[in-house]
Design goal:
heterodimer; A: 177 residues; alpha/beta; Pyruvate-ferredoxin Oxidoreductase, domain 3; six-stranded mixed sheet; 6 helices; B: 354 residues; Rossmann fold; seven-stranded mixed sheet; five-stranded mixed sheet; 14 strands
Chain lengths: 177, 354
């Protein structure tokens, strides 16, 4: 099964939307059809943020998802909201330093990475989403790590390019966690 | 080779307008279309154009009236409540027969409503939201690539017929990102605008752009001219997509982002052995009656799906004119119909027409 419908959810400021854009951009570099749909408005302003990403070999019907094959969650409310959306056989990757309960699902694979804690220990919390993306990319094979790197160069402003080698290192840690 | 980029719908509208030769943009911010303004604010100065954040939507639309009178390619954009504020100016521009492009990235109403996607401004867009017997061309793109192509086309259609063209999108289309392929060069039609009131150093007769004609006999003649033009547009400019209609048991009718959800429904239904098709109007005015004539004999029934209480369904019923049953399902207030919502209705109709 090609896992190609993703939801990433958490608080505004955790890099939720950036993570989704990076995935979509990397998918574009592989000549796949991609769509990215962010939540907008009051949800984003300090509340919960989420985005829906589809990466597909075929024409994408709808960018609006009612279910997904893989889910990244970075806070408790997002797990509560989206846990049931994951299709059987799908995966959930949680930031276990922010999500304080286990998933109740037994028909999917769940990966827990204390991403915020790991990123804080490295001295930069903004890297937390990259650990989780690493695991997602490893488990779904949705994009190649080298295209993720190209996506970082394509999306980040030039003054942040110096961070990319470290982000790639973190991606690999996430993949192997 | 064009340029392949991952871009947000709203930004693509702005970029497309600039590529189409639009050098005047007047607007006022409102969610979920403010990125159009952001993009214009950044890019217009770089191409020698005018970006102006007006004091209100009413001011912005009247600035559009001014620039259009001078024969310039001009655009404004807003979302539902802001478009309501612009209606007086829109009626005046229609009366003055001016080309202009208006973007409405719809959100839930009525009133201030909410900020989530909706399609409840269909009546306002297609039936005349302002006063008087006027129409504007209404284009309903369903993805980011189409937002680009339709925006360029909107300027060409507007100039060709001296008419307003509205791009009718919603929060999903404005906010989503997809890959867009920009052409190296735009096909910008060079249209004679000898009617423009743009200064001439007394080298010709004055041009006058106005919507006031106090003699009813004269005003009637103007109106007859308008109606002839709308008829011509109806003949020439209908656009639609027929998707999967051959042998379809039920044909769905939907535009914009909802048509995308309907394509998902068609896929899911096929897995259950149910054949569904889709008529997707791309022009909402002129309503693509030709599309329905092509498929009228195929299905047992039509099902219109909208993010509204049922607005386009009235045009579908007029077009079908009792020849086949027409059903409706939809969500309101910023809620998006799910595949499951639509499938439930499909099964209900299937049961009725066994």
């Amino acid at each position: 099964m090609f896992l190609n419908e993703f939801i990433i959810a958490g608080f505004g400021g955790q890099g939720i939307l950036s993570a989704g854009r990076l995935l979509a951009y990397a998918g574009m570099l592989e000549d796949k059809e991609v769509s990215f749909l962010p939540s907008y408005g009051p949800e984003m302003r300090g509340g919960t943020a989420n985005c829906m990403v589809v990466i597909s070999e075929q024409e994408i019907a709808s960018p609006v998802l009612n279910s997904c094959s893989a889910l990244i969650v970075m806070n408790n409310p997002s797990l509560d909201k989206f846990e049931s959306w994951v299709k059987p056989g799908g995966i959930i990757v949680t930031d276990s330093s922010m999500v304080h309960r286990k998933s109740k699902r037994s028909d999917i694979k769940v990966f827990e990475i204390p991403a915020t804690q790991l990123a804080s220990e490295r001295g930069n919390k903004t890297f937390s989403n990259v650990y989780l993306l690493g695991k997602l990319i490893k488990e779904t094979g949705c994009v190649k790590p080298e295209n993720f790197e190209k996506a970082l160069y394509g999306i980040l402003s030039k003054k942040r390019h110096y961070m990319i080698p470290e982000e790639m290192e973190i991606l690999k840690i996430g993949m192997e966690y | 080779m064009g340029q392949k980029l991952l871009m947000k719908g709203n930004e693509v509208i702005a970029e497309a307008a600039i590529r189409a030769g639009c050098r005047h943009y007047f607007g006022y911010p409102i969610t979920p279309q403010t990125e159009i303004m952001h993009y214009m604010a950044k890019k217009m100065p770089l191409v020698g154009g005018v970006f102006l954040q007006a004091e209100s939507e009413v001011a912005a639309i009247n600035m559009v009236y001014g620039a259009a009178s001078a024969g310039k390619r001009v655009m404004t954009s807003s979302s539902s409540p802001g478009i309501s504020l612009k209606q007086e100016g829109i009626s005046y521009i229609a009366g003055a027969q001016l080309p202009a492009v208006i973007v409405n990235i719809m959100r839930g109403g009525p009133g201030l409503g909410g900020i989530q996607p909706s399609q409840s401004d269909y009546f306002q867009a297609t039936k005349g939201g302002g006063h008087g017997d006027y129409r504007m061309v209404v284009l309903a793109p369903a993805g980011v690539q189409e937002l680009y192509e339709m925006t360029v086309e909107a300027f060409n259609i507007s100039d060709r017929y001296r008419i307003m063209t509205m791009i009718l999108g919603d929060g999903v289309l404005g906010q989503m990102m997809e890959v867009v392929n920009f052409r190296d060069e735009e096909i910008v039609e060079d249209i004679n605008k000898s009617w423009a009131a743009n200064g001439h150093d007394n080298k010709r007769e004055h041009n006058m752009v106005t919507s006031i004609h106090l003699d009813p006999a004269v005003l009637e003649q103007w109106n007859i001219g308008f109606q002839d033009k709308y008829k011509l547009i109806s003949q020439n400019e209908q656009r639609y997509e027929l998707y999967n209609c051959e042998d379809a048991e039920i044909i769905l009718v939907a535009y914009g982002s909802v048509s995308r959800i309907c394509k998902g429904v068609i896929k899911e239904a096929a897995e259950q052995g149910i054949k569904l098709g889709l008529v997707r109007p791309i022009t909402l005015f002129p309503f693509p009656v030709d599309a329905f004539e092509k498929v009228i004999n195929i299905p047992k029934a039509f099902l219109t799906v909208e993010m509204s209480a049922g607005q386009m369904v009235e045009d579908v019923k007029i077009t079908i004119n009792g020849r086949k049953p027409v059903y409706f399902t939809g969500r309101m207030g910023g809620m998006i119909p799910t595949v499951k919502d639509i499938m439930t209705k499909v099964m209900e109709i299937k049961e009725k027409h066994r």
